[in-house]
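Quick one: co-fold with 1,3-dihydroxyacetonephosphate.
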Amino acid sequence: MKITLSAIKADVGGVGGHSKPSPELVATIKNFVQKNGKDKGLVIDSYIGYTGDDTHILLSHTKGPNNPDIHKLCFDAFMEATKVAKEQGLYGAGQDLLKTSFSGNVKGMGPGVAEIEFEERPNEAVLLIAADKTEPGMFNLPLYYGFVEVSRSPGLILSDDMRKGVKFTIMDVEHTEADKIIELKTPEEYVEIASLLFNPHRFVVEKIHSRSTGEQIASISTTRLHNISGKYSGKDDPIMIARVQRPFLATEEIGAMFKYAHYVAGDTRGSHNMALMPVKLNSPASVYYCNPIVTGLYFSMHNGKFTATGDAFDDPVFDEVRRMAAQKSFAMREQGFVMPAMLPMEEIEYTILADKIKELGKRFIIRK
Ligand code: 13P
Ligand code: MG
Ligand code: MG
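Sure, here it is.
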């Protein structure tokens, strides 16, 4: 039996700013999914959690990716939650819902989507990695380290299957009319892969497939909210589903790729660079300049049911990574408003600086 995992996420309101959803907001989504998804037999199982102000719905079902009923279920759940967010006066109520009525596929309507269909293994093991205050290209470096670079990821030579390499599907997210993608294979095209992934604002890993079994290993949301709406509408906080353990990488081989606390675009006003901090499940955003955060849920599933879950970064090792991330972020903030502390003009989520520079442009003179 083929199972599909759909992770659909949106920010529909935060408590006292862009922090976290309220308990009532989360409960509304849970009840909605239970009543209209599980009770009706549309989905097999569900898990609802949050990372900062982004709430994610993870569903297992047999309908395949891009199924209108599954997407509508999530869209409607977020619409219901928006009502609650408005009643509670939450900040940014309905922020990521760029349309108010559903039209077939939730992609392009604001919520982020990662989906993956597979023949379930007897011991199916999966990771759900969700981030807040950053962008989908955040995954570029951890995925490159994990799936391409043997010196950081020795599993690539210890597994017969991983030795055969993987296929990266990379999207050019600046092309907004349609999905523009390229497929590149490891190990032989690693230079080409790196030549794109160096720019995480434009080139984003969308999928990874095993060259050994042909199966999809990972799926990453690639939404660019400001490309859809044409104006600032929050950062496109990303989510990834990754299948782990044989014949893929081990859970801890992917988890370890988040020990670098690499600098990512995002944080306050989505306009800066700070170090990515792995945090515990259902953590609020940091009031230290909205330091970018990432959570990891690992779980087992059987016959489509989520049988048991664990918190990937609730671990003393990651206490050290958190300390390092804080130090790296403090160091970057010492740089004040000057790049690279602040993003280049095209990536800043507000147009105010561009407008002001235009205004000042009138006062520039050419010296004779
Ligand atoms: P979110 O994209 O997480 O809503 O954050 C927006 C922001 O501007 C925080 O300062
Ligand atoms: Mg928000
Ligand atoms: Mg967010």
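If it helps, The longest strand covers residues 293-302.
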